[in-house]
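Thread: quick sanity check before group meeting

JM: Hey all, I'm pulling together slides for Thursday and realized we never actually wrote out the predicted structure for the chain we discussed last week. Dropping the sequence here so it's in one place. If anyone has concerns about the input, flag it before I start.
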Amino acid sequence: MKISSHDTGGAYAVMEASTPPSSGPPLHLHQREDEWWYILEGNFLFEIDDNSVHAGPGDTVFAPRGSRHTFQNIGTALARTLVTVVPGGLDLFFQEVDATVPSDTLPDPAVILPIFRKYRLELLGPPLSKR
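JM (edit): ok, ran it. Output follows.
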C-alpha cells in the first residue's frame, strides 16, 4: 500500500502490485472506481471492454468505472505496477480478500462473491490465461 483510502478520506488509493508471469485477475467490472496502472516493470496485455492494450515500463493504462477489464503479465518474470483508484476503497477490498482467502489457494466462489458485491465489483469471466 502506497496511499490508503483511509489516508485520503476515501478520495483515492495508490497501491503497488506484483503479478507473476502468465497471471492476472479475472474479467471484472468496478461500479464505483476508475482505475489506472503505471507499469513499473514487465509487459502486460490489458483487455478493457473489447479493446486490447499492450503496455510496458513507463506506460499508463486507464479503465473507467463501468468498463469490463482484466490484464495478464505476458512476460517471463515478475511484473510490477503502480495502481491508482478513484475513489478509494479497492484497497479495502484487497485487504478483506487477503484476510479471508488463504494465499496460494483458489478462492471459493461462495466466500469471494459476497466480498465482490460488498465493494460493488462484478465478476464477469475467467482471467486471460484461462480463455
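AS: nice. The first strand starts at residue 13 and ends at 19. The chain has one domain: 13-130.
JM: adding both to the slides.
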